[in-house]
Amino acid sequence: MIKYLFIIILFLSLSQYSKADSDELKNPIYFLRTIDCVHSKCTIPKYYRTFSLHVFQVRNDTYTPAKCDPNNPFDINKVKSIKKKLEEAWPDFRNWDSPQGFWGTQWEHSGTCTEPYLTTQLAYFQQALTARENVHPNKALIEASILPSNTTTYTYSQFDDAFTKHHGKKTTIKCMNSWNDVVILHEIGYCFDMDFNAVDCSETIRNEQKEWCDDGSKIFLLDWWKQ
Ligand SMILES: *[C@@H]1O[C@H](CO)[C@@H](O)[C@H](O)[C@H]1NC(C)=O
Ligand SMILES: *[C@@H]1O[C@H](CO)[C@@H](O)[C@H](O)[C@H]1NC(C)=O
């Protein structure tokens, strides 16, 4: 009798474990967030002025899995072949000379959750680079004549229209509320289906990401480095 019970309990706990392990993300998309370094603590060199990679993850409308595989820690040797490109595209704003710790955090937090789809560390980082090469936030701004300024401000819908027009799909826009309540454009996010076609980011994701830039906000586009 005791043996019987033991087997049942063991079976129950095993099946629970494997259920959690293979819990499938329903309606997944890829989500790429690019970021402009607007912190005063940026350590990036003066020549560097672009929206760089911040986050590349798989998620759905309501749920973003994180830290999916503690048994697969980041290994710089696995991305050696694209290290130069990563240094350019995915810098650590607070530690320009040594971004590897940041890549490791990103891999462990978001990358491991793409394993069912992208399967290797190299594939994850390569796909992030490719995705970023296909979005052009700076060009979108220039085309809409939205230029960096310390004095002219823009509205959320001006930015939104500029990115939608250039990219052809709805993006997300995040701002930062800085010193003296100054609102600054900070992040642009892009959504892709699982075949890497650009798709509209849903209103749910757009609203979730829309930090600090309300419809009435006066938003600055900063350009420290060209001053
Ligand atoms: C997102 O995926 C989770 C499972 O991981 C599921 O419970 C949830 O319903 C999904 N949300 C949408 C909007 O599909
Ligand atoms: C714009 O603001 C930055 C940061 O405060 C400052 O360094 C720069 O001199 C300003 N530029 C102009 C033209 O006022």
Number of helices: 8
- Work out the number of β strands: 6
- Which H/E pattern describes the elements? HEEHHHHHHEEEHE
Strand content: 15-25%
Outline the biggest β-sheet.
6 strands, mixed
Please report the first level of CATH classification, the CATH class of the domain at 14-136 and 187-209.
Alpha Beta
Termini, distance in Å? 80 Å
| Mean pLDDT rating | 87
Roughly how much helix do the residues carry, as a percent range? 25-40%
CATH topology annotation of the domain at 14-136 and 187-209: Ribonuclease Rh, Chain A
State Rg. Answer: 20 Å
CATH superfamily of the domain at 14-136 and 187-209: Ribonuclease T2-like
Q: Which compounds are bound in this model? A: 2-acetamido-2-deoxy-beta-D-glucopyranose
Secondary-structure-derived class: alpha+beta
Low-confidence stretches: 1-22
CATH architecture of the domain at 14-136 and 187-209, by name, is: Alpha-Beta Complex
Would you kindly provide a written description of the structure presented here, covering whatever features stand out?
- Belongs to the RNase T2 family.
- The chain has 227 residues and is an alpha+beta fold.
- The chain has a domain at 14-136 and 187-209: Ribonuclease T2-like (Ribonuclease Rh, Chain A, Alpha-Beta Complex), CATH 3.90.730.10.
- The protein has 8 helices and 6 strands; from the N terminus they run H-E-E-H-H-H-H-H-H-E-E-E-H-E.
- The protein has helices at residues 2-21, 83-89, 100-109, 115-118, 121-133, 137-143, 156-167, 203-209; strands spanning 29-35, 52-59, 172-177, 183-192, 198-199, 219-220.
- Strand 4 (183-192) and strand 5 (198-199) form a beta hairpin.
- The N and C termini lie far apart (80 Å).
- One 2-acetamido-2-deoxy-beta-D-glucopyranose (NAG) is lined by residues 150, 224, 227.
